[in-house]
Amino acid sequence: MKNSQGETPNPAPVEQTSVDQRIYPLHPFMLAVASVLGLFANNVKEAALGDILPALASVLGFALLLFLLLGLLFRGLGARTALLTSIVLVGCLFYARLWFWLDHKTGGVVPFGLFVLPFMLGLALLFILVARTRADLRLPHSILNGVAFFLMITPIAQVSWYTWQNARPGLVVATSEEVVAPVGDRPDIYYLIFDRYASAATLQRYFDFDNEPVLSFLEERGFYVAPGSHANYLKTAHSLASTFQMDYLDFLADEEGSRSSDWQPIYRLLGEHRVGRLLKSVGYRYVQIGSWWRPTQASSFADVNPSFGFREFTSIYVRDRLLNPLLHLIAPESPYTRSLQWDSGQCQRVPWQIEQVEKAASGSQPTFVFAHFLLPHEPYVFDAEGNCLSRPESRERGTKQGYVEQVRYANKVIRDLVTTLQAKKDRRSVIIIQADEGPFPETDVGHTRTWREATEDELNIKMGILNAYYYPDQDYDLLYPTITPVNSFRMLFDKYFDVGLGRLPDRLVGFPNIFRIYEFFDITGAVRATQD
């Protein structure tokens, strides 16, 4: 249209009142997706696609809300609004990752505090400049679309390539046996894992700690304590997978290749396993009370999955975003806020787990309760009474004493749980208290040296575990001093369900490091030789 002087005016650029079809405001949403997919690509060997969905949905919702609010403020949904939205998203979603990248490139010479303030001030100035400029913003908008697309497609390509390289038709594992259990002969079963709880011999020899009082307590309570028990594998995932499959994992070396570092096959064995299928086939209700670690945090196989705080992927994602300090500012005592800190989250989670175990079995249906306590596993934040220490207090105490104090606290938890569970006169309960592995030696084994090069002392520290059983009738004819976890449920099911599984040889199995987790080799002789 022309003005009264017959000229066509050249108005200052303003935002469109609706989304300009030529603008395609995609980069805010691609940046949001890229922030999630980048973390997923870095953890594709351990995370599953379903793990990222809560974070992905939340961040896309946040990006959309921010885009609409800024569109309302600036009266349009065109290039200006899209650029402003992306500036805010970069500040909220990428500030920590950018610092990690800069810290790595500069060799750690730029402190976080020195980086974040200028970075945020720079983004604020850029936001003001874009908000106030009268220039045509379509070119920078189009460039940012291209940059955001590259940032989004790169992790997609990485994940796709990894998935294609590791494509598999599915694991072939043993199926559960058909069993028939007489009604009334199905006690509740509590399987309580205390992560990295060393054997009494290890505690005495390497930590100068006498653990006899808690072992005597268990024996007085009718438990069978296996004094010569060892873990079957070096790491939690392998150990629990073999325990729940009631078999060794040799088939994984054939299916995955000995040099694979893909944890997904093992994690799948922890999601739906032979023990769970058998128990559910005879009418058990399955309750899983896990840690923050994804494979035990929840199971699709369980009937009940009490949850504390964020899931593992979401927690890691939020921890490096601006939402983390905002939550600590707005709601510092929220369980979600506390769970974002590894140490503080542990202080909140363990008491919650204890409560969940105590109330897990109810009603007429027999219940299987699996609880995974990260005790005496690091972080070493508890004293012997379960009080939570500050970070300076924990550092001052030191690693070795921190581990011993958490063994003391684990003992308190064991005493309290055993007393509570055995006091339920209306329910008969089997209780298995077991470690999945021992503590890691304070050496470079598993890092610069492989476990093939481990010394006898390093193997003894890592493999010796607590292993105690309570059967209501206290008939322990099937148990023996050197029983290992792979035989725990075999013996239990043969006793109560007459399955006829029998006993496997008690083998101890190592692998070089986390980069070759299926390169199995036998360490039974090396460990047992020092025990004789």
Describe the protein's architecture and organization.
The strands form two sheets. The chain has a six-stranded mixed sheet with strand order 2-6-5-1-4-3, sandwiched between helices. It has a two-stranded antiparallel sheet with strand order 7-8. With 532 residues, the chain is an alpha/beta fold. The N and C termini lie far apart (99 Å). It is elongated. The protein contains 22 helices and eight strands. Helix 1 (27-42) packs parallel to helix 3, helix 3 (79-93) runs antiparallel to helix 5 (112-132) and helix 4 (95-105) crosses helix 5. Among the domains are: 27-163, no CATH class; 193-228 and 273-302 and 338-452 and 463-469, no CATH class. The model is unreliable at 1-21 and 171-176 (pLDDT under 50).
Q: Helix proportion of residues, in percent?
A: 40-55%
Count, helices: 22
Q: Which structural class do the helices and strands define?
A: alpha/beta
What's the story with the biggest beta sheet? 6 strands, mixed
| SSE string | HHHHHHEHHEHHHHEHHHHHEHHEHEHEEH
Question: Per the principal axes of the C-alpha atoms, what is the gross shape?
Answer: elongated
Strand content: 5-15%
**Structural Rg:** 28 Å
Mean pLDDT: 87
Quantity of strands, as a count: 8
The spatial strand order of the largest sheet comes to 2-6-5-1-4-3
Span between termini: 99 Å
Low-confidence stretches: 1-21, 171-176
